[in-house]
UniProtKB/TrEMBL annotation, chain A:
InterPro entries per record: AAA+_ATPase, ABC_AA/LPS_Transport, ABC_transporter-like_ATP-bd, ABC_transporter-like_CS, BCA_ABC_TP_C, P-loop_NTPase
Domain of life: Bacteria
Lineage: Bacteria, Pseudomonadati, Pseudomonadota, Alphaproteobacteria, Acetobacterales
Keyword presence, Transport: yes
Transmembrane segments: none
One GO CC term, this protein: plasma membrane
Chain coiled-coil ranges: none
Organism from which the protein derives: Teichococcus deserti
Name of the featured protein: ABC transporter ATP-binding protein
Keywords: ATP-binding, Nucleotide-binding, Transport
UniProtKB/TrEMBL annotation, chain C:
Gene Ontology biological-process annotations: amino acid transport
Record bears the keyword Signal: yes
Protein name: ABC transporter substrate-binding protein
Segment forming the signal sequence: none
Organism per entry: Teichococcus deserti
Family the UniProt entry places it in: Belongs to the leucine-binding protein family.
Keyword Metal-binding: no
Domain Leucine-binding protein: 31-373
Length: 249, 616, 406
């Protein structure tokens, strides 16, 4: 059996007496697309931040390809092959699309602390390739500050792929996008993930996206995992229906 | 001496009286900042106007004729109200046009007001210090533990809590106050609620100005009214506001209390500590609690507006014009007189100084109110090497950037962890600590008399050669900065400014980037400082004083933080204006203030931005 | 307002200087230009009257035919209290304005910076106000001359009086910078020589212009001194005195105070003026010798106000420079330096002639020592006498050892 890319063991986090995440354990295999769903306030964001290093866990461990990475800051996780996209896109507004991606490449290749060499053409080709894959090659020179929201999501994806990740953590990857665009972006993501054997963990509100692209679904409610399995099985789970899907009508 | 607890209690009361006065000024400042995010440099000027107006109103006009209790208090309150009205006027005429400008840009406008008020006060009230009348019924003193304690100080001790209470009522029990608190918390939300923001902001500014005016007016029975009151109070008020936590009234009260008491007791133990005490306290507080004592973190920290895309490259003709000007300068220099050469050498140095600050303010995204510390560190490194080791200029010029860079590494390690105004104020605190070392360690630094005789080596002593040397080193420094900004490091530096979250997520260490940038910036400021020292032949604590830090800040802001052209244009414009005006008129501060104000209103993106196109 | 007249006068002087700018004339018969640098915007209260006194003297010298027919002309510059600006302006005045010599300086560090500039550039610098002893002693040089009685001299004058009094336990209060520190140092040293039994029980060093007067007065009160040596001046003095009066700090105590008898500091005190302080100063209203009365009247007529101590300093500095120029018969620096050493000129105080000592380039201009007294709503100096500076200077051999050899 292969080592899971990501493994959570009994992750727990308490905010002011409330257990936002309560003993969550799961594993993610290479190339697998796993969706994390749950009602608002279920603890999805907290769990996500425990996994990406932004928040320190009260208890439990996170393993990346078998190594204990609990408590490592996000930038160190990136070095170990974790790429991220954010619920509200985070790109560098004053930099051009190409520069955004090139910077991610520079960081990956540890060329950031170079003080005198003009950065102009470093990794220009690689950046173009990555942007081509997400359909942004036509807008290389535009500043991110002036891009449309959907395009920013694509730039983020290209940046997340710059370190040849084995794991992508995507927080609400399609939030704020039009329905067709959502499907297209996730289809792109799925294709890349499959081609490069990248495991993907994503949270999502849009059930069409979840059931259309996830190989497996986890359901979080009040900090606990209440169901996990293939999309159909989860959809049929009565507890899930009661806590979550029921409310969605 | 027997343990004299009664004496200590009385000393504690002295501290309370100072704390109370300080709180009045600081409360206005913090209210204004909380809502409008304006760093109001002119707050001290409003305080001073309050005092002068109160002095005039108690001596002339209807209140003076009325006399007695009502005459006095009528004058005090009228002075405060007049200052409040002035504040509203300033907000409507000037600041309102600048809310969309980049962060800290309003600082330029308020600084221009400081200059204007200084000269207007001199013209209206003359240069002599004024003594106001004592307050009716509160003239004398009462006996407390065998020591005579002025009644007016007791009254002041009561005023602080009363004003705090009234402000609390205003904020929690009135519609204006509730809106004001909401705006402090979330400006956009209040706008969305359909509140007339303009009126709210004008009202807030009037309130803050009125508090400053009241603070000043209430001083007249206790302190002389002088032309230096503005600067004396503004720095201390800022310290109080920052220690307390920006926008927090309770914090301001607590911080005023701490500073007031520390002053009162500090002088018993270390009589010479008053120069640096408040800054030591601020440094400690900010290192331990980066949001101030009662600051509420993200909600009160200034939200950095997203940086606009970089302007496009300099238009061809303009670029050629700039290059042609530089070449012409080098070619014409031998035919200039000595004084133009001295000036040009000075300008070269100031350009490098401003450009070094630009690295951390523009690409780095951090403001520094204490950049003179590194300018001074370089200057003192050169001067101390000369004084103690008789090192020649060549050695000094090489050592200075290293020394300043080391100081930058030391101070920067603390400063770059903080954000926004907090970080800027911590740089100020360190700069003041450095200043007080240069001032008080007389055996080594010569104290305020400085170190003399730091002249260039023989070959560089001629004005022309020294100008070429200054120009060459400054140009080298600026070109180095330009390369750094365009290198991967510069890209990463801008990236961590734009989005710390994303920078971290692609493996960039924001702290390390800012720290290195801070040290590089400090090193180049140090080179500028050393050149300046050799140009003047001497080094003084004023090299690292607040005015020099402010100068650097103004040059960068005036030129624009967007590109490296900004500080270059800004430095030349600012220094050139000041030099010309000071020779033409005694009222150069007034004229300079008006000019800066006009520039700010017409070129809100800085002078350099005015010459460039925006990239699409 | 009174100072308005004064200001217009000042501006006129500047305007004359500005108009004459392009014509840098060194020709015989053209004006002799003096470059004057001072902290006009930083210290307006002291320096406005100073410039008035200067202009009055210049007018009188020129009315009397100038220097061998050449009028004096002064170019004024404001250093805003920054020594580095003063050095830049010195360069401007020497190189662009073609002045024959430099003068001015109020703050000690500005004076020292200008002195070093003079040494480096071999230009004469006639320092007016800076009090620091270093200017003529530890950092003295061939090209720098100082008019005003120094910190040491003023402290020595006060010690002489203080030593006669019974007070034994002394406390000091002084602004925290070189002037304040030196004054305290000299007072302690010189008093210890005259009264070995005197003790110093504590000191306060408030930041210049930032005194926390209530706390400072209270801190001094706790020490229960018999005598207080005060060096604060200007705003600090006003605040210190008001708090001290209210809290009874000065009752039953001897106070010796530097410069407090000068009108610039005494007048703003108004009815807060304390009684019986031993001060150095300038009893303008009661100094009724012929020379001074004439000067006082001329000044009042020209500027609509009475002269202050700064006015006399400005006036005397022009007189000294004029006397030097008459003797030198040249505007060549070395000739002027030689002429300046040992030059004698009459002071506007009307107390006789003053000389610049050849040994250390310090003038023997003195000051008045007396006591303060509140009369009606204003304070004045009483029981005063003129203390000749020559009597309060260390011997020439002694100071020669302190000066760098040049």
């Amino acid at each position: 059996m292969t080592t899971p890319v990501l493994q959570a063991e009994g992750l727990t986090k308490t905010w002011g007496g409330v257990r936002a995440v309560d003993g969550v354990s799961f594993a993610l295999a290479p190339g697998e697309m796993l969706a994390l769903i749950g009602p608002n306030g279920a603890g999805k964001s907290t769990l996500f931040n425990l996994l990406n290093g932004q928040v320190r866990a009260d208890a439990g461990r996170v393993r990346l390809a078998g190594d204990d990475v609990t408590g490592l800051p996000p930038r160190k996780l990136w070095r170990r092959g974790v790429g991220r996209t954010f619920q509200i896109t985070a790109t560098f507004a004053s930099l051009s699309v190409a520069e955004n991606v090139r910077l991610a490449l520079l960081s990956h290749h540890r060329r950031v602390f170079s003080f005198l060499r003009p950065s102009g053409d470093l990794f220009a080709e690689e950046a173009k390739e990555l942007l081509d894959r997400v359909g942004m090659a036509a807008q290389l020179q535009k500043a991110c500050g002036v891009l449309a929201y959907g395009d920013l999501k694509r730039v983020e994806l290209a940046m997340a792929l710059a370190n040849r990740p084995r794991l992508l953590l995507m927080d609400e990857p399609t939030a704020g996008m039009a329905p067709e665009a959502r499907q297209a972006l996730m289809a792109q993501t799925a294709a890349i993930a499959q081609a490069e054997k990248i495991a993907v963990l994503f949270t999502e509100h849009d059930m069409d996206v979840v059931f259309g692209h996830a190989a497996r679904v986890m359901v979080l409610d009040r900090g606990r995992l209440i169901a996990e399995g293939a999309p159909e099985a989860v959809r049929a789970d009565p507890r899930v229906r009661e806590s979550y899907l029921g409310k969605q009508g | 001496m027997a343990f004299d607890w009664q004496g200590l209690v009385v000393q504690g009361l002295n501290g309370l009286a100072s704390a109370s006065s300080l709180f009045l000024v600081a409360s206005g400042l913090t209210v204004i900042f909380g809502v409008s995010r304006i760093v109001n440099f002119a707050h001290g000027s409003l305080y001073m106007l309050g005092a002068y107006l109160a002095w005039t109103l108690t001596a002339h006009g209807p209140f003076a004729e009325l006399g007695g209790f009502w005459g006095f208090w009528g004058a005090i309150l009228s002075a405060a109200l007049t200052v409040a009205a002035l504040g509203a006027l300033v907000e409507m005429l000037v600041l309102r046009r600048l809310y969309q400008a980049p962060e800290l840009f309003q600082l330029l406008a308020t600084f221009a007001l400081v200059l204007i008020v200084q000269d207007v006060a001199l013209l209206l009230w003359g240069p002599d210090d004024k003594f106001g009348p004592r307050a009716p019924l509160l003239r004398g003193a009462t006996e407390i533990f065998g020591a005579r304690f002025p009644l007016y100080e007791l009254f002041l001790i009561a005023v602080g809590p009363v004003v705090l209470g009234l402000l609390w009522l205003l904020l929690h029990r009135s519609r204006f106050g509730i809106l004001l608190r909401a705006a402090t918390h979330d400006r956009e939300m209040v706008a969305a609620l359909g509140v007339d923001q303009k009126r709210l902001f004008t009202g807030v500014f009037a309130l803050g100005a009125g508090l400053a005016g009241l603070g000043g007016a209430l001083q007249i029975p206790r302190e002389a009214v002088t032309l230096h009151m503005d600067m004396a109070v503004i720095v201390e008020a800022f310290v109080v506001v920052v220690i307390g936590g920006l926008g927090s009234l309770g914090g301001a009260a607590l911080a005023a209390l701490i500073i007031g008491e520390l002053h009162a007791f500090g002088i018993l133990v270390f009589p010479r500590i008053t120069l640096v005490l408040v800054f030591l306290v601020m440094a400690v507080v900010l290192v331990l609690r980066p949001q101030g004592l009662l600051g509420r973190g993200a909600a009160t920290a200034p939200v950095a507006a997203p940086a606009p895309p970089l302007p496009g490259p300099m238009p061809g003709p303009l670029r050629w014009a700039a290059i042609a000007a530089a070449v012409a300068l080098v070619g014409v220099a031998p035919f200039l007189g000595d004084y133009p050469l001295i000036l040009l050498a000075d300008f070269s140095v100031l350009v490098l100084f401003a450009a070094s600050l630009h690295l951390i303010m523009g690409p780095g995204g951090m403001a520094s109110f204490g950049h003179a510390a590194y300018f001074g560190a370089g200057a003192y490194a050169a001067a101390l090497l000369f004084k103690h080791l008789a090192a020649p200029m060549e050695v000094g010029l090489i050592a200075a950037p290293f020394a300043a860079g080391l100081v930058g590494l030391l101070f920067g390690w603390f400063c770059v962890r903080l954000s926004g105004v907090y970080a800027a104020m911590l740089t100020l605190a360190f700069a003041q600590i450095a200043w007080s070392i240069s001032f008080q360690w007389v055996e080594v630094t010569g104290g305020d008399n400085g170190i003399l005789g730091v002249w260039p080596s023989g070959w560089a002593r001629g004005r022309l050669v020294f100008f070429y040397l200054s120009l060459a080193l400054s140009a080298a420094g600026v070109l180095l900065l330009r390369r750094i900004i365009r290198a991967p490091f510069g890209l990463a530096l801008r990236a961590q400014r734009d989005s710390p979250l994303r920078a971290e997520a692609i493996g960039l260490d924001g702290f390390l980037l800012r720290w290195i940038a801070f040290a590089v910036s400090a090193a180049l400021a140090g080179l500028a400082g050393a050149l300046f020292a050799y140009g003047k032949g001497s080094v003084f604590p004023s090299f690292l004083g607040i005015p020099r830090s402010v100068d650097a800040l103004l040059m960068v802001l005036l030129g624009g933080v967007q590109t490296l052209t900004g500080p270059i244009v800004g430095a030349i414009a600012y220094a050139g204006l000041q030099e010309q005006l000071a020779r033409l008129t005694d009222c150069w501060r007034l004229v300079l203030g008006v000019v800066i104000l006009a520039l700010v209103l017409f070129f809100p993106r800085g002078l350099a931005g005015a010459f460039r196109r925006r990239d699409a | 307002m009174l100072h308005g007249v004064g200001r217009r006068g000042l501006m006129a002087g500047v305007a004359v200087a500005a108009l004459a700018r392009p014509a840098v004339s060194r020709a015989q018969g053209g004006p002799i230009r003096i470059g004057e640098i001072n902290s006009y915007t930083a210290q307006p209260a002291f320096l406005g009257p100073y410039r008035n006194g200067w202009l009055l003297a210049q007018e009188q010298v020129n009315a009397a035919g100038g220097i061998d027919g050449r009028p004096l002309e002064t170019v004024f510059r404001d250093d805003a209290g920054k020594p580095e600006d003063a050095v830049r302006l010195a360069g401007e005045l020497v190189n662009a304005e073609g002045v024959a010599l430099l003068a001015g300086g109020y703050l000690s560090n500005v004076g020292l910076a200008l002195g070093d500039f003079a040494r480096q550039n071999k230009k004469l610098y006639a320092a007016s106000e800076p009090l620091t002893d270093a200017l003529v002693w530890s950092r003295g040089n061939r090209y720098t001359f100082r008019l005003r009685p120094s910190t040491y001299m003023q402290a020595a004058m006060l010690v002489e009086e203080a030593a006669k009094l019974p007070a034994m336990r002394w406390a000091t209060v002084a602004p925290n910078y070189e002037y304040g520190q030196s004054a305290v140092k000299w007072f302690r040293e010189l008093l210890a020589k005259k009264r070995p039994d005197a003790t110093f029980v504590g000191e306060q060093f408030p930041a210049l212009g930032r005194i926390d007067a209530g706390a400072t007065v209270q801190a001094l009160e706790r020490l229960r001194p018999e005598g207080i040596f005060n060096v604060t001046f200007g705003t600090d003095l006003l605040n210190f005195v008001r708090q001290g009066n209210t809290r009874g700090l000065f009752e039953g105590r001897t106070v010796a105070s530097m410069l407090s008898g000068e009108p610039e500091y005494l007048e703003p005190l108004g009815e807060e003026c304390p009684d019986g302080w031993i001060v150095t100063g300038y009893p303008r209203d009661d100094l009724n010798n012929e020379t001074h009365v004439k000067l006082r009247d001329a000044y009042r007529q020209k500027f609509g106000e009475l002269p202050r101590c700064g006015s006399i300093v400005g006036y005397d500095n022009v007189q000294a420079i004029a006397a030097m120029l008459r003797k030198a018969r040249s505007t060549e620096t070395e000739a002027m330096v030689e002429a300046f050493r040992g030059i004698r000129f009459p002071t506007g105080y009307g107390t006789g002639e003053v000389t610049f000592r050849a040994a250390d380039h310090q003038s023997t201009l003195g000051a008045f020592v007396g006591r303060t007294k509140l009369e009606g709503k204003r304070g004045r100096m009483v029981d005063w006498r003129y203390a000749d500076g020559a009597d309060y200077l260390p011997g020439e051999a002694e100071v020669r050892a302190w000066r760098p050899q040049d």
